[in-house]
Specification:
CATH class: Alpha Beta
CATH topology: Ribosomal Protein S5, domain 2
Number of domains: 1
Structural class: alpha+beta
Helix content: 25-40%
Largest sheet: 5 strands, mixed
Order of helices and strands: EEEEHHEHH
Number of helices: 4
Distance between the termini: 74 Å
Amino acid sequence: MEVINALGRRKTAVARIYLKHGNGKMTVNKKKMEDFFPSPTLQYVARQALELTNNTDKYDIEAIVAGGGFKGQVEAFRLGIARAIIKLEPEHRAVLKSNGLLRRDPRMVERKKPGQKKARKKFQFSKR
C-alpha cells in the first residue's frame, strides 16, 4: 500500500500527515507522539479520529507539524488524520463528520489596529 498524505490546519499551525498500514506507531516531527504532545488531553485529541473509526492499531502515522502552539498543532494534526482516513476508507465519513472532525476551524487571531492598544482595546479617552 502506498502512503496517503493529507493536510490539516488550525490557527497558524499546519500539519502534514503521512498515513500507511502498520501497527499504530505515531511520530510527530521525528519524536514519539507522547513526547511531542505530553499532556493526556492533547494525546486524547490527537487519537480522537482513530478511536472513533476503530483504527488505533491499523495505521502508522508520521507527521510534520509547524507553526502555532500546542493546541493549534494538535487540532491541525487531528484534522489531517481525519482527512487521510477518509481518503482510505470513505465509509467513515459520516462518523467523523457527525463528531465535527472534518471541519477546519476558521477562527484566527484578529490583527492589532494602529492607534489602539490591542485588536479591540482602545487607549483611555481623556476629555480634558
